[in-house]
Amino acid sequence: MTKFIKAFFKYGLIIALIFSVCLSYSNFTFAEEGQPTEAQVKAAFIYNFGKFVEWPADRMGGKYFVIGVYNDDDFAQVLTEIVSGKFLHEKPILIKQFSRIEDITGCHILFVGYSAKDYLAELLNRAYKSPILMVGDMQDFANRGGMINFRMVGNYMRFEINVNAVQKTGLKMSSQLLKLAIVIK
Predict the structure, then answer these.
(1) Closest CA to 56 of 108, 134, 127
(2) Residues in contact with 88: Cβ distance below 8 Å, sequence separation at least 6, in sequence order
(3) What is the spatial distance between Cα 123 and Cα 6, in angstroms, rounded to a whole number?
């Protein structure tokens, strides 16, 4: 019974945290004063995605948990503010900015925005080989092979997960995260 209670509190707390982040950051109009910006919400989601994905053991070496941002300096700044002092998988988080695809190395998560739409095939190829959890913010990102895509549904921030793309990289995603997503196969 003790193991059950410990597991319930551990996973129950994790599920409650995800739900609270999803609900508190998604049930508002982004224009309201005093509310988090859309970029802050996305940054918080990315941080929480990292908690619910398991990377192969050989990818978890190194001193930092690295979140990369491709061609979006403003978002990199917001993400840096949100994750400052935080850890993922017992490692301090380091934000790296990339302006060239060939420089993208050593990331656990890579965020790509709309400006990367013309380079998506190259970015995905790099992510599949590494493995990198690629999170995007563009129409049809998940349908085109991206792993997690942000999507506005009315005034609500939602996210899509392409399960096949995640499996292709060798990453393992928590069922709790999949329950909150719009799943694309």
Answers:
(1) 108
(2) 47, 50, 51, 65, 108
(3) 40
Distances (CA, A) of 182 to 16, 36, 93, 105, 138: 19, 23, 27, 29, 15
Quote the pTM value: 0.81
Task: Give the tens place of pLDDT for each residue, 8-54.
Answer: 444 444 444 444 444 444 433 444 567 999 999 999 999 999 999 99
CATH architecture group of domain 2-184: 3-Layer(aba) Sandwich (3.40)
| Amino acid code (one letter) for 118 | D
Residue 182: which of 154, 161, 151, 153 has the closest Cα? 161
Name the region of 180 (left: φ>0; alpha: ψ -120 to 50; beta: rest). Answer: alpha
Residue extents of the structural domains in the chain: 2-184
The count of C-alpha atoms lying within 13 angstroms of the C-alpha of 34, restricted to the half-sphere facing its C-beta, is 0
- Is residue 164 within 8 Å of 142, Cβ to Cβ? no
Report the C-alpha gap between 39 and 25 in whole angstroms: 11
